[in-house]
Amino acid sequence: MSMNSFGHLFRVTTWGESHGPALGATVDGCPPGVAVDEAMLQHWLDKRKPGQNKFTTQRREPDAVRILSGVFEGQTTGTPIQLMIENTDQRSKDYSEIAEKFRPGHADITYWQKYGIRDYRGGGRSSARETAARVAAGGVARAALDALVPGIAITGYMVQIGPHKVDRDRFDAAQIEQNPFWTPDAVAATEWAEYLDGLRKSGNSVGAVVEVVAKGLPAGLGAPIYGKLDTDLAAAMMSINAVKGVEIGEGMAAAELTGEENADEIFMGNDGQPVYSSNHAGGILGGISTGQDVVVRFAVKPTSSILKTRQTITKSGDASEIITKGRHDPCVGIRAVPVGEAMMACVLLDHVLLHRGQIGGNRGAIG
Amino acid sequence: MSMNSFGHLFRVTTWGESHGPALGATVDGCPPGVAVDEAMLQHWLDKRKPGQNKFTTQRREPDAVRILSGVFEGQTTGTPIQLMIENTDQRSKDYSEIAEKFRPGHADITYWQKYGIRDYRGGGRSSARETAARVAAGGVARAALDALVPGIAITGYMVQIGPHKVDRDRFDAAQIEQNPFWTPDAVAATEWAEYLDGLRKSGNSVGAVVEVVAKGLPAGLGAPIYGKLDTDLAAAMMSINAVKGVEIGEGMAAAELTGEENADEIFMGNDGQPVYSSNHAGGILGGISTGQDVVVRFAVKPTSSILKTRQTITKSGDASEIITKGRHDPCVGIRAVPVGEAMMACVLLDHVLLHRGQIGGNRGAIG
Amino acid sequence: MSMNSFGHLFRVTTWGESHGPALGATVDGCPPGVAVDEAMLQHWLDKRKPGQNKFTTQRREPDAVRILSGVFEGQTTGTPIQLMIENTDQRSKDYSEIAEKFRPGHADITYWQKYGIRDYRGGGRSSARETAARVAAGGVARAALDALVPGIAITGYMVQIGPHKVDRDRFDAAQIEQNPFWTPDAVAATEWAEYLDGLRKSGNSVGAVVEVVAKGLPAGLGAPIYGKLDTDLAAAMMSINAVKGVEIGEGMAAAELTGEENADEIFMGNDGQPVYSSNHAGGILGGISTGQDVVVRFAVKPTSSILKTRQTITKSGDASEIITKGRHDPCVGIRAVPVGEAMMACVLLDHVLLHRGQIGGNRGAIG
Amino acid sequence: MSMNSFGHLFRVTTWGESHGPALGATVDGCPPGVAVDEAMLQHWLDKRKPGQNKFTTQRREPDAVRILSGVFEGQTTGTPIQLMIENTDQRSKDYSEIAEKFRPGHADITYWQKYGIRDYRGGGRSSARETAARVAAGGVARAALDALVPGIAITGYMVQIGPHKVDRDRFDAAQIEQNPFWTPDAVAATEWAEYLDGLRKSGNSVGAVVEVVAKGLPAGLGAPIYGKLDTDLAAAMMSINAVKGVEIGEGMAAAELTGEENADEIFMGNDGQPVYSSNHAGGILGGISTGQDVVVRFAVKPTSSILKTRQTITKSGDASEIITKGRHDPCVGIRAVPVGEAMMACVLLDHVLLHRGQIGGNRGAIG
User: Fold this and answer.
1) D177 backbone dihedrals φ, ψ, rounded to 5°
2) Does some domain include residue C366?
3) Are residues D335 and D161 in contact, defined by beta-carbon separation less than 8 angstroms?
4) Cα separation of C17 and A23, whole Å?
5) For residue A238, which of B229, B167, C105 has the smallest C-alpha distance?
6) In chain C, which residues touch A (CB < 8 A)?
7) Most CB contacts within 10 A, which of A46, B59, C222, D19?
8) Contact yes or no for B79 and C2 at CB 8 A
9) Do B367 and A316 count as a contact with CB atoms less than 8 A apart?
């Protein structure tokens, strides 16, 4: 089946290589009558766009998205939406060495072992450039969610870079757009800048942790047992390049809690909806949303393209060593923030549509 | 689509509630000619079976699996394999209170909010009993893997319970079958027994971390971009009841590594296959297996059915409190070990079949 | 993927062999709150049940269906519904010869060539007995449709047996339940009885054409381009054993019409809904329902198990001949009538749920 | 799920409207290492291209296909192949009237009723132009089939136009490329030209029957019960615009045969493969290929855009009449021939990959 697609009713198929003529996303299953235009999608792509500061790759391209189908007179028609982004700044020469050698920690070797052929230019299909298509598709998902779930808000931000975590007591949402790391902790932003600058100058890179939160969701989203909301979110985030771990709510730390500590107590709110004393569950119980904030975190490993010499082998199996020159992110986790938001938007829209289809949306009131 | 199914070519659909007449798994896409019988599957079910020691629920049932279709004269025929386990020890009366009240931290409330009706007996569909069907299906997957990938070995074990982690220096695979926690650290096993006994007596529960490792895999398994091996493993593990986090290789700790530290250096082995200086990647690069051990960890939250009083509400929305009597696991993570193994087996078989179908299995040699 | 499943949101997986312990259907995606019980499903199974008259196989079994999951206190819960039918009258000895020889016109040889193993008893998985599971699942679909689309009516009947067609001028729906052929033409029923009796006595068999009509559908059902309502109906009917052709509306005869003749003219009805001057389209335009009757026909080939001597080969490739003794249908098309109704019900429910999920059901009014 | 996609392992998603900037196909699951280039695909598109003679629409465009991804240095890489065809000759003004009125027999009204919005220009998504994307994707499928099943040949041709059928005794494959109808009967070609010219001048249109045959297939392709080879072929052909009926082998005529007549007798061939005395089955038994020619026929209804006045209604529900001016096919069935071939190629490749994945391709020898 389609291994380059995700989603059930709202289904996104991304295509394209880093240095081919173009890449994009085929978006199927978007409801009709949603206001969508290129400017709206460009807003999200610009957020992800490389070359905006010294902490992201200096590759510079407009990443301009074109809508080729599925939108008529400013509204979606319910037919497939084709989103295309042309590759304009390719500099293939930068990548000649990796045609023969495999970068340690990179997908070079496994793509070769699986397919026996690969477009090695800039990582080809395994390049983080593929995530531009996700962000464009996420823009469509956001537009549809705004129409179907008024008041929903999806926000991503960095909570850790290397060993340095944010101080939750300094959490200030207003700061997120004010620094190159999309972090809510202004103090951390200053410290990280210095830390990352040193790494960058030394030709090294580092990992990060991104958190994405969705507010304003209704209860009841998620399809047990194998289409749980957290199952789909885990798959969506783990499918992002370089992600090695995914957490919902307490995440791995849930192991350290007792049942007494972990059980979010339930009360009735003034609006007749249940409220909870805490949110260890990250807004999901039994794979279904509770109506609380949905909280997801994922860890991004450090960029494997670095200026440090590493031992490797060639396609012929000969021992060699490699230094990856060219333009790279000292912390690819930074650009993963808008990608995580996009994946959250796609998964949530999908489950809104699934719930509407299978349940009808008019059941399960309390009281 | 089928939200109670997982897998692409090897597809498992589980069905059944905790206190219905039976539960089971419909297994579709198993290759023909694989030797399978009920005793073979029962071996894995017995490993998961409750009531084996004081650290798991005292509910006692044989969990005897019957093969109703798809196996003829001891071999799979390539047609659907129906695996049925009858529920024999139900004691519905134990569960009468939760018909009206929602257990904090449990799926009671979200199932109600989504469906407007639920089989509340023993948690119904959201009960951990559903995992018995996964273990049975995993037994079929193991049998097929043994036939297709001779020498493959899948082993799960506990590495943390509450705040107490194993000491990796004391790792001894031979210990895993020797203690009620399936832990490779004999010293930890002793300490955990005392710790957990105290929790059990106080009517409390605690979380845990389970690690599952697959050895002897070929390189090349995994289907980028959205059917990556790690994506499917993350979804499979996150779909297990009570799981809140999933890690591949370094997992969340990858955030703290530099590119230099994280890049597993590559050399040629004597057998003409690549070997690596380390396995930070957990055996997966770009979503495709490297041939190293595939290493997955997941965190299981504490059981929410506890003897501690918690604040909650009723179906009518009235404030109330609840103490869950009855037979419960102080650490449901223990029984999650064979479940994690089963999910690993199903995902790996699925990707072996996918690779054979889409690539043909004869490409990508190095040297 | 699951090759024994059909449907998108309402997904049915059938399992089981003719002479195994049982067969059944795993029904996933049924909305919650639908009144379903075993008696309701048994009604449809009894209609299909063999041995009711001399024109169907004399194999006699109750074909009693059991609901093992997904229904609680008489209502569906939104979780998988497991429907099991035990095989009670098996007489394996009747089928010993076909273990070695392939019946011409039967799936014996292709199952062997594909799988290299087959449960040859009674045709195993390729037996028409599999359709009992479809009829049970169709009963669930009918119950859900009645709840979601009040007034919908699905009726199947025979319009041709061998060379003998019904006279449309004698069409009387009241006759359908009055004869062993479920034909609306009482005169044909009498003629067919004599004709078929002769064939039966001579040990021969014959084909038939079945028509299934759905009345009372809303406009707008169907999901272009590849999930069209007619596409899914064609697949559903062609998947029934022995079906070799499927028609929508005019069907193959559409080739003979001019554009002027074929274009069903459109007018407004008194109820503010469009009405049409004719229904050449069979209620479907561009893969989407028009609100007219949906009309599907399919041809069933003659039973290949006959008492006539035919040339064949053995598993060893030796020339041989075969006469299939045992209990067989002179016209398997008769029992295909309730099966066609069941497939229609499943496809329609699926598209009602899809439309509700992707469109929301509140668009596209005319005037 | 993706309603604009078809196929299991080889999955094609088409996108685009008749008068948007472009349309195309996203092709996922093509094996790596297959030689593919634009010229190879253009060959098949040119065969379908309109405006080649007076019997097809005079709309003239190059229909030039561009490969945007998935092919590197002339070979497929196993990643998604994006095929784009730009729309160059659009003349939107020709289509202004149908913005308000619904053409009888056309999808205009149902798209409006389903989506509440439609790109009415040239039929938008429901235009036969969408089939250009299928033909491009079919070209990729043909290339992969040639590599995997050497000697396979897929040929489509017209066997009926209006009431006029070919004479099977005059069947001459060499004639197919020699006339504008792709018919194997030279005499029919002459008669049809005169007949169709008269229809064209009167502003009318007519239906047709297309037959597509695949030679050189192995036995064993097809995935019972719901992914049968004939099931998937029926769905593929019924999904083509204007198709109202699909037949395999004897098709609807199977109803008139006795079991004795229908049973293709089996013998052993000199090459150790089974041979058959006839092919009533159309090369498929129990949904699995026998190794004989796979024979599929489908009926195409007449074009609904005609110069004859028909009664209809407007979007406002007012009575009206319509004459569709502009450039149309007097027999759209002609251009359906290469489309039918393309669908056959896609379905067969898909089942070759499925068989390889689930069975491994090395079982089921006879003798």
Assistant:
1) -85, 0
2) no
3) no
4) 48
5) B229
6) 1, 9, 29, 31-33, 78-79, 224, 353-354, 356-360, 363
7) C222
8) no
9) yes
Domain limits for position C84: 5-359
Q: Enter the ipTM.
A: 0.96
Cα C80–Cα C85–Cα C91 angle in degrees, nearest 5: 150
Backbone angles phi, psi at D121, to 5 degrees: -65, 110
Neighboring chains of B (3 or more beta-carbon pairs < 8 A): A, C, D
Instruction: Provide the domain count of chain C.
Output: 1
Find out whether C127 is annotated in a ligand binding site.
yes
pLDDT of residue A307: 85
Average pLDDT for A11-26: 97
pLDDT of res. B165:
98
For an interface test with C, the pick among D103, D262, D271, D350 (most C C-beta atoms closer than 10 Å) comes out as D262
pLDDT tens, A233-282? 999 999 999 999 999 999 999 999 999 999 999 999 988 899 999 999 99
Quote the percentage of chain B above a pLDDT of 70: 94
- pLDDT at position C307 is 85
Structural domain includes residue B367: no
Local structure of residue C31 (DSSP, 8 states): P
Region B116-124 average pLDDT: 91
Residue D354, number of CB atoms within 10 A of its CB? 27
Q: Binding site: which residues of A?
A: 48, 54, 125-127, 241-242, 286, 301-305, 327
User: For chain A, which chains pass the contact test of at least 3 CB pairs under 8 Å?
Assistant: B, C, D
- With CB atoms and an 8 Å threshold, state whether D364 touches C302: no
Tokens (6 digits) for C215: 């009345």
**Residue D367 counted as domain residue:** no
Cα–Cα distance, C220 to C149 (Å, whole number): 13
Tell me the C-alpha distance between A233 and A214, whole Å: 12
CA dihedral D291, D295, D296, D302 (to 10 degrees): 160
Cis peptide before B225 (omega within 30 of 0): yes
Q: Are C299 and D252 in contact (CB under 8 A)?
A: yes
Nearest CA in chain D to B353: D357
Of all residues in chain D, the one with the smallest CA distance to A351 is D1
Residue A337: which CATH number?
Answer: 3.60.150.10
Question: How confident is the model at residue C57, as a pLDDT?
Answer: 63
Q: How far is the C-alpha of A144 from the C-alpha of A31, rounded, in Å?
A: 7
User: For residue D194, is pLDDT > 70?
Assistant: yes
Average pLDDT, chain B: 93
Task: From residue B131, give the alpha-carbon distance in Å to each of A108, B36, C16, D181.
Answer: 37, 20, 23, 60
For residues D204 and D92, which has the higher predicted lDDT (pLDDT)? D204
What's the whole-number average pLDDT of chain D? 93
A–D interface: beta-carbon pairs under 8 A: 156
Given a cut of 60, whether residue B91 has pLDDT beyond it is: no
Number of H helices, E strands in chain C: 7, 18
Q: Are D22 and D132 in contact (CB under 8 A)?
A: no
Nearest CA in chain D to C266: D312
The band of C329, judged by pLDDT with boundaries at 50, 70 and 90, is: confident
Mean pLDDT confidence for B119-138? 94
For C271-304, write each residue's pLDDT tens digit: 889 999 999 999 999 999 999 999 999 999 999 8
Q: Which of B46-55, B157-166, C280-289, D123-132 has the lowest mean pLDDT?
A: B46-55
C333-358 and C130-148 are packed helices; what angle lies between their axes, rounded to 10 degrees?
Answer: 40
Q: If residue B261 lies in a helix (H) or strand (E), which one and from where to where?
A: helix B259-262
Rounded to an integer, the average pLDDT of A125-132 is 94
Classify residue A213: in a domain, yes or no: yes
Q: Which residue of D76, D81, D359 is the best one to mutate when testing the B interface, meaning the one whose CB has the most B CBs within 10 A?
A: D359
Q: Kindly report the backbone phi and psi dihedral angles of residue A204, in degrees, each rounded to the nearest multiple of 5, phi listed first.
A: -105, 180
Contact between C256 and D311 using a beta-carbon 8 Å cutoff: no
CA D107 – CA A77 distance, rounded (Å)? 14
